[in-house]
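Researcher: I'd like a candidate sequence for this fold, 86 residues long. If you have to choose between options at a position, lean toward the conservative one.
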């Protein structure tokens, strides 16, 4: 949670600095470039680092995150019952 809040504050600060009057990169067009860029970076992060949890029980999800925390990179690719058998 602390990382998420820190990223939020950094993004707010960057947006305010870029969009303030008198800034050489200010303007509606430049701001509209940053929002999609941040969205693409966020999508890449979610796709690359967060496992799929659809159709899994709470116990399977807990085990998945415990394996990931222990450093097992295969944990994000395991499916359903295979997550408990492996």
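Model: Candidate sequence:
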């Amino acid at each position: 949670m602390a990382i998420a809040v820190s990223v939020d504050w950094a993004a707010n600060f960057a947006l305010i600095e870029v969009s303030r009057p008198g800034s050489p990169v200010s303007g509606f067009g430049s701001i509209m470039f940053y929002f999609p860029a941040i969205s693409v970076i966020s999508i890449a992060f979610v796709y690359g680092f967060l496992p799929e949890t659809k159709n899994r029980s709470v116990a399977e999800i807990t085990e998945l995150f415990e394996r990931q925390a222990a450093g097992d990179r295969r944990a994000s690719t395991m499916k359903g019952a295979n997550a408990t058998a492996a």
